[in-house]
């Protein structure tokens, strides 16, 4: 579904991604873990074209996308749930969803189906997004990405700043998306949370992948857990 091959990404002179590779198989959830500041969001920005890599390739459904605009990448089926939600604050809930609406014939995501996944959004459909709780804004950010009818969803720290009970509900929703066949790149700082969902995991440090394995193998690896995940 998505393959990142040896990418090198900078902010000006700052060399952040230093030869990073990953592979997301169709229908799987790939976890990308790592502490604060290791370059997780920079990777997301490189994949979606906000900050393209200077070297290396990003291949999505067999096509090289690292030189195309974010607009084209989203149009070709990449859904983004950005870190910090980034909903349109003064638009209503339903307006936030409708601005993203695209090609329902692709995977059948419509307003009704997003509301079925997140009934709370239906209850709040006429409220401005800025009046929602953090958990509701996260549901809205996910719903907005689903409205683009993506083949692949990238979620950047969806649990950030949310209470455990809210996260539990979100995690159930993400599990349903996987059951429905969506491929997901789940970027998380919390290994404990990510490992409940993912099929495979990469751990990042200083702009590189330092460990790859199954959740079971990572859980059994005390050295990686303590060195790179603070567990
Ligand atoms: N716009 C920017 N300009 C310059 N440097 C940046 C910019 N954004 C991030 N950086 C730097 O790049 C490095 C990686 O940051 P990034 O946001 O990718 O980390 P992260 O793993 O997503 O962290 P977090 O867990 O805080 O979200 C950090 O050293 C950060 O200071
Ligand atoms: Mg980040």
From TrEMBL:
Keywords: Amino-acid transport, ATP-binding, Nucleotide-binding, Transport. InterPro entries: AAA+_ATPase, ABC_transporter-like_ATP-bd, ABC_transporter-like_CS, BCAA_Transport_ATP-bd_LivF, P-loop_NTPase. Residues 2-231 form the ABC transporter domain. The keyword Ubl conjugation does not apply. One of its GO terms (molecular function) is ATP hydrolysis activity. Pfam families: ABC_tran. One of its GO terms (biological process) is L-amino acid transport. The keyword Endoplasmic reticulum does not apply. Belongs to the ABC transporter superfamily. This is ABC transporter ATP-binding protein.
